[in-house]
Amino acid sequence: MNDKELKKLFLSALYLLVGEKVNAATSAIDSTTESKNTATKSTAGDKHETGRAMMERELALSNSQLHKAQFLKNELSKISLEMNFTSVDLGALVVTNQGHYFISIGLGKVNIQGDDCYAISGGSPLGIALMGKQKGQKINFQGRNIEIIDVV
């Protein structure tokens, strides 16, 4: 498989992972909302209020997770598979002697057909170190010498 095909599979895998995050958050919101709406007040009023407060907190957490997942999905939509890169930028697949890095969103290691690839954001420490670099250049990152073999 060539690097362009790998990049396409990588982007598809990231969309799938982010979609799962959106679905999980949406499901949690629906479940918590239903529980909150069906909770009946008992004679122990304090327990009821404590339970509702916990549900409100869970609902806020799930909403936060949903917004983060939607933000990641939006960031992925900015990436074009048609762009040709001469230097590292958002949407570039960086092939190095240390592995493949996709400058996209920070989701970490993703296995693509048996190959470990890393989804990193351009604002991460490694993303910042790679940004603007070109094929053949080397960087020293946290004591590791990383050579850029290709930028796709």
How would you explain this protein's 3D organization?
It is a single chain. The chain is an alpha+beta fold and 152 residues long. It has helices at residues 3-38, 45-77, 125-130; strands spanning 93-96, 99-103, 108-112, 115-120, 138-141, 144-151. It folds into 2 domains: 3-77; 93-151, no CATH class. A 6-stranded mixed beta sheet has the order 3-4-2-1-6-5. A hairpin with a 2-residue loop joins strand 5 (138-141) and strand 6. The protein is built from 3 helices and 6 strands; from the N terminus they run H-H-E-E-E-E-H-E-E.
Write the layout of secondary structure elements.
Layout: H1 3-38, H2 45-77, E1 93-96, E2 99-103, E3 108-112, E4 115-120, H3 125-130, E5 138-141, E6 144-151
Parallel strand pairs: 2-4
Antiparallel strand pairs: 1-2, 1-6, 3-4, 5-6
Helix pairs in contact: 1-2
Characterize this entry briefly.
The protein has 152 residues and is α+β, with helices and mostly antiparallel strands.
Summary keywords:
alpha+beta; 3 helices; 152 residues; elongated; 2 domains; 6-stranded mixed sheet; 49% helix
